[in-house]
Structure formats: C-alpha cells, structure tokens
Amino acid sequence: xxSIPRWEVLSLxxxxxxxILSSMFNVTQKIRSLTQPWVSSYVxxxxxxTLKIQKYHNKYxxxxxxxxxxxxxxxxxxxxxxxxxxxxxxxxARQMTLLMALCDYIGNCIKDVVCAPRxxxxxxxxxxxxxxEKENALEYGLPSSHTLNTVCLSGFLLQYILSYTQNDxxxxxxxxxxxxxxxxxxxxxxxxYLGMHSLIDIIAGLAFGLAILASWxxxxxxxxxxxxxxxxxxxxWAVLCFLLLFAYPTxxxxxxxxxxxxxxxxxxxxxxxxxxxxxxQFHHESVPHVFTPQLTLPAFLGRLIVGYPTILLVRxxxxxxxxxxxxxxxxALGIPVRSSSYVPSLSVSASAKKSDQIKQAGYIQKxxxxxxxxxxxxxxxxxxxxxxxxxxxxxxxxxxxxxxxxL
Length: 407
Known about the structure:
Helices cover about 70% and strands about 0% of the residues. By secondary structure, the protein is mostly helical. The protein folds into two domains: about 280 residues, no CATH class; about 110 residues, no CATH class. The chain is globular and about 60 Å long. It starts with 5 loop residues before the first helix and ends with a helix. Pfam families: PAP2.
C-alpha cells in the first residue's frame, strides 16, 4: 500500500477547511458587499467608452470580432486540445488543459463572487453571433474570461515554444511577445466592441490572467511531475475534484458559470487519470510527433478521423450511462434527487422551485445533510462524469485505438 505524502493530506484538508469556514462566515456575501457596488459604478461610468468604440461598427468588424471570440472560446479549446495530444505534443496538451481548468475555475469564481453586471444593452449594442456567446452573455461580467484565458494560454504557449525550440534569440522572443500582446489586445477590444464587457472587466481579466500565468509558470513542472510519476494521483485528484465542486461561491442569480466549471473540472480529472495510467505507453517525451517519419501527415489525419467520432460517441454514451446510473444509485441509497435539464422524469414544476440557485447553493450543507431541501440536484454529477469520461477517452481509449490500428 502506498504511503500518502503529507502535502496531499494538508492541501485537501486545507481546501475542506476553507469550504467549511467560508460557508459558516458568509465570506462570499461579505466580499460581494464590498466589491459589487464599486465595480458596478465603474461599469456604468465606462459605458461612454464602449459607445465610442461601437460607433465604428460595420458588418465586417462584427464578423471579425465574432470569429475572433470563437477562436478563444471553450468549444474551440475542447476541439484543439485533443489535437495537441494526438499530434505528439502531450506535455503541452496536458499542461494547457490543466491551465485552462484553473483559469475557468478562478475566473468563474470571481464572476460569481462579485456578481458585477455586464454593460447595459441598450444603450450598448450587444452582438451574440453564436449559441456559445448567448450562453456567455448569461454570466456576470467581471473579469472577462476571454481576456483572462487568452493571456494565460497564449503566454504559456509562447513560453513552451521558446523552450521546446531552445531558442535564446532575443529578437525571436520579442517578436513572439509582440504577437501575443497584439492577439490579447484584439481579443480585449473585441469583447468591448461586441458589448460583452466593460473596460473594468477587461482590466480585471488582464490583471488576473497575468497573476495566474506567473503562478502557473512557477509550479507547472512540479504538477506535471506529480501527474506522470506521483503517488495516489487518481485518488488525490478525485477528492480534489469533489472538493472544488463545494469550493465554489453561490451567485446572486443562477448563471452557467458553475456548469462550465463542472465540465472543466471533469475534463481535468479524466486527463490526469488517463495520463497517469498510460504515460509510459502513449504520453512520454519520445512519442512520435506529427510531420516526422514516425507520424506522417496522412497518419495524423487518420488519427483525427478516428479520434473525434470516438470521443463524441464516448460523450454520448457516458451521459446516457450517468443519467441512468446516478438516479438509480441515489434511489438505492435513499437519497431523493431531481434534475433541471438532464432527466425529465426527475424534473420539478416551476411552482415547486423557489430558485434555480439550488444547483449551485448550499453544497457544504448538502455534504453534511444540514440542508432543509427535500431533494438534491443530480445534473452536476451527470455533467462531471460525462466530461471526465470524454477526457479519459482522449488520452487513454483513443490512443489505444491508434496503437491497434497502426496509426
């Protein structure tokens, strides 16, 4: 039996203690009462800046900034990260996945703590060209997730490329930095132009993004070493994943932010478990890279043709399995459950709902059975299982298929 390192116990106990204390002392409400009025006033006072930028609107800029927002959206990274794994850049892929999960958690926590409004529309003109953007518009404003994620992921990608190519040329590094800065600038400008964020949201996204990136660059090597060769990796990350569901603030009104966090929390869990189990088979540093004799372009395209349908099938099947299994398990344990969207037979009527916040509120009370609610939301468990299964298939099931198919 493996011994449990002290830092694992201390870190998990620390998070659990924070969950309990923050719930007991209403930390979220106290922080919100201090920050929300100040941020809201800045959102209103910077509306003229947004209107000045939007004076230059035309159909070409609408299309350009809408497309640019899609490039850094969660669906884009959901498709892009598997491509990195299957192209042989496994270390970059797993680190970017965990960084994305961290950005998503911190950014959405801040949104639902502060609960700052987005720019009022009208007078601001809001453009939501895709269903993803329409869902994003339902979240609170500060910070801008697009800006925060772009700072972290493009900055980390630049650092990885310079390190991977072992390029110490100052001019090359400066050119890369300029490209990253321009990319971040256009993303930030686009969020204001589209009416999705105010200037204060952008500034907060930049500040938090730089802080997260600096922190990640100082610890990512240790985290990666733990994932590929540590002890109790699967059990530690499963408990961490569970605690992070509880260590999430309750917003004033329900938003999709918690659902996004649950999804990426599940993705991180599936990636960590899959990589740890199959590192020496599929994810070590000597795996073939695309555009090399060991992994030619036709073979890589074959991987994509096999890989994407497989993970979509796993997502569908795992969701169906969770919708059947979790309610049955809860029933066997005598736990009353209900579903807001996944299981129609467990849904409750609108008159029976006091608030949709039940999905996000009172997790610590539920954990210790202090809640006075007569049933519990099962959608979170379904979503977590679904995305964990999808991520596991990306790094374990699909590479196994590649091996057997000679890809």
